[in-house]
Amino acid sequence: MPPLLTLKRSKAYLLIPTAIIALLILVFSDGRYWSTIKITTQDPNNSIDLKDYTFPITDSENILKKIPSHASVQEKCTTFFDVDTFKKTTYSSFNFEDTSVNQFFESHIKKKFKYLSDDDLDSLAQQQFEKYLTPDEIDLVIGMYNDNFKKNLEVLKEIKEQTLQTRIFNECYIKHGFQDLPCNVLQKKLFPWLSNKSPFSEFPSTHPISRFDGNDECILQHINQKSVGKGIVLTASNSHYDDLTSLILILRVLGNTLPIEIIHRGDFSERRQKNIQLLSKNERLSSIIKDKLGIKVSGSLPEQEIRFINIQDSIDSRYRSKFKRFSNKLLASLFNSFHEVVIMDTDVIPFTKPQEFFKFPSYTNSGAWLFKDRTVIYKHGGSDKNFWLNLTPTDAEKRVFDISNPLKERPELIENNRYFQGFSHLVEAGIVVLKKQDYLNTLITSIQFQLWDTAMKRVWGDKEYFWLSFYLNGLDSFTLNQNYAGAAGEVRDIPEELVSKIPRTFNEKEVNVEGICSIQPVHVHDSQLLWMNSGYKFCKKPTYALADKKYYPQLSDAETIKKYKSSIKIKQVLIPPDMDDFYISMIGRSDHDIPWKGWYYTELCAHYTFCAIKDLLVEIEDDKDLKGSEVRDGKNVKEYNGQLITFDIKQSKFFDELGELWMNSDTVFRSVRTGK
Description:
With 676 residues, the chain is α+β, with helices and mostly antiparallel strands.
């Protein structure tokens, strides 16, 4: 019998609404399921804490137990993927969603919590739910939760089963390249989203990759074996056209020599494709830039080799709706022809030639270079960590296929990983540099999770899959950039209204709060600015200029609007202090209660703007012992300092010119198209 929630309405202390707790966490943690909940069953001695829950043993694990470790790899693969046994495997919950709970949330409960004050949030933190929900609402939600809880546990088991089978498939077919096993049958079962139709039909005839023709071949194996060379991979649709035009212009000016494949789903018009090709090959571009923008471009501007690849038919029609927004980048990472790739968002601005990314030791030493995100203090529930740890390689896989589990063998990997320490963000995937042929298994695993809603709701977009999939395949051979993301601009005093909770005095002495506020996360390696995300605009939502006017009292309305439509000026980059140690020690406190942060999320630019703080002097509670703390003026404090990089005049001018190019690509293209 599935665990049932005990129903008690005690105003002194609410034990019941553990279901409500789960639902509230959905509201405050970007929609993730069952983040930090304790399910009290009818038997008070029988409870399940999803933070510690171990997923059930799967059928695949039982099969592995019967395979002798001394058998050949081929014998092991043949035994594991016995056709008759494997055909019986079903994934009934691929499309399972808690639609009843979700719809109730979106249409009713979520509206109640949309505009809560700090006092209201405090009430929620104290579990005073009866203030907001009626008894009937509590009963309804608890009933829905009980109906769905058992289904959720079944889903967890199926995800574990599929993840293990995908791992063994990668071992047999991708790593060892077996040809004599029924790959086509296995693909249809394990990867139902694959149509087995070639995504390469639009390649020019001069391209060396061969077309996949279906039949009984293994398309994933084919992609792995036929991928060659180095290149840039983008995913785009008509809505990305303006950003893509700016990016192509930037790439030409930087001197990019890598071929580019732009992956789409049939939603990038032929007219726009021709426009991009025209811009990528125009021989007069240098003179046009000088005439229209007054920017002198030194040297030749290499033509860009661009191929547009329509992968829509490569995705089974039944599963196309599963791949939206961010997940299209995962598909593009798989369905390209390159052996080594720079995977890039269309609104990224590189500040170095893309081919140079392949030369950095961060890439050459591992074949996978990822970049850290902002150290924002967003926290997830403990069950998110436990969810992924339950999907790592099992002891049986280690015995039979020698697939390691780095997270189990090296606990420091968990201790030093901010996601596993409770923070929601680790990686920023605007650029990923990957030796695809070596790590195709990680991409396959990442795509698989797009079928499971409960997995997708535990991470934001695609970005965390790029490193999680390594651990889920028994690998730890990726490199994280040495620095976390920073902010670009110039350090200034930050208005108190934006960061009101930071104390402005210490022992009656005034404390300045300095930093940089911007929408763009930027990435630095050894003081070299490598790239930034989110374009060059000061605000990607310039219509919000007047709504933010109160923060710019020195500017007129017209000046504020002009500022919001302008490009940012990069004179400095600030990487704010890493305060994870401070927050780990206070992990039980609500984020909105804590005054000190390296990053402040603001309402500027429709809430896209983050303020990076340069230095902070933090008072430490007496019972906390943080490394580096000291006593000043009778108070236990710790000083946190950010890393500030200042660019010289020549560098700043170069950044400004790239900004002008990015902002005015439409002017440049108009001249390219008309010849005027």
